[in-house]
Amino acid sequence: MTVEGIACDWEVKSITSKASIMAWGKQATGPMPLEAIHYLINLAVTKQKNILIGAKTSNFVYVTKEFFQANPLGIKEADVKDDVLGFFSLILTYAKSAPKLEQAGALKALSSIMPRTNFLMMYKLVQSGLKPYLKKQGDLYTLVKYLACWENDYDHDEKKLHTVAVSHGFCKLQNGKMVPTEEIFRDEMKFTYKFKGAKSENVSIKDWIDNLQALEKDSLEEDLDTWMWAQFGGLEQKTEYVVGTQRPVPIFEFRDLGSSTAATMEKDVKEIENAFLELHKKFKTAPTAFTKWWKRAVGGEVFTGIGGHMERREA
Hints:
This protein is α+β, with helices and mostly antiparallel strands. The chain contains eight helices and 16 strands. Strand 15 and strand 16 form a beta hairpin. The two termini are 37 Å apart.
C-alpha cells in the first residue's frame, strides 16, 4: 500500500492467521463541517448508505427545521442554518442517549460519529447564529428542551422521514404548540459512569448545556470522558480547515465502518478520502457567519484564532 508522503513500513508481529485473510477494523478521523454531519445523520436515519456512516445509527437524532415549529425563544424555522441543525443533532443524539451510557461503557460508544473537537468549540462556531435569541444564561438549555419535544419517524414503506412529537410525557400541547414539561431533562438526569473500585462520575444535561452557553467548558469532555477514555472531545478546541479554504471546522472520528483486508485496504482508504473531499466540496462555505477572527503577534510569531482556538502561523 502506498500513501503519498508517508513511508508505510510498519509490520505486525505474532499474528495468529495469514496476513492475507486478517480483517482490520476501519475508522477515519478528519475535519468535517457541521452541516456535513447534519447531512450524514440524515442519510443514516433514512437508511441510506455512505462509507462514513458506521454500524451504530440507532441513537442518531436528525434535527430539522420542523423541530423549531413552536418558535422557541423566537427562533423561526426559516432562521435556522444547516450547521446549527448539525450542532443540535449532535447535542440531542448524546443528550437523549444519556441513560444508555452505563450499558454502552463509553461516550464514544453512543454514536458512530464521535466528536474529537469538543462541544465548546462547536458551540463557538455556531453561536453567532444563536446569540440574538439567547438573552440570558440558561436560554440554550431552554432551547434544547424545546427541541427535545420532537423526534424522527422514518416510514419504510413511503421511504419518507417525518418529524413527530415525542410519545412520552416530557412535552405537552399548549396553545397549539408542543412545549416541554417539568419532566423533560430533569435536573437530576445525568450522564453517569461507574468506575470499578471508584465512585461514580456524572454530568447533568443541564450543567453540560449551561457550561457551553457560558463558554466555560465541555463538561462531557472535561468532567467525564477524561476519566474514561480521554477520546471524546479529546482534541479540545482544535480545528482544521475545509480543503482549499481558511474555514475552521471540527474534527470527528467516524467509527465502526466495517473491516478491510490487505487486498482491499488501499481501495478502502481512497474511498474514505474521496468521501471527505466530496463533503468538503459540497459544504465549502459556512452557512453561519463566524465570530470575527483575531490576529496578533507574540514574540515575533503570528497567532490567529476564533474564540478560544489559537493556531501558530508563519509571519
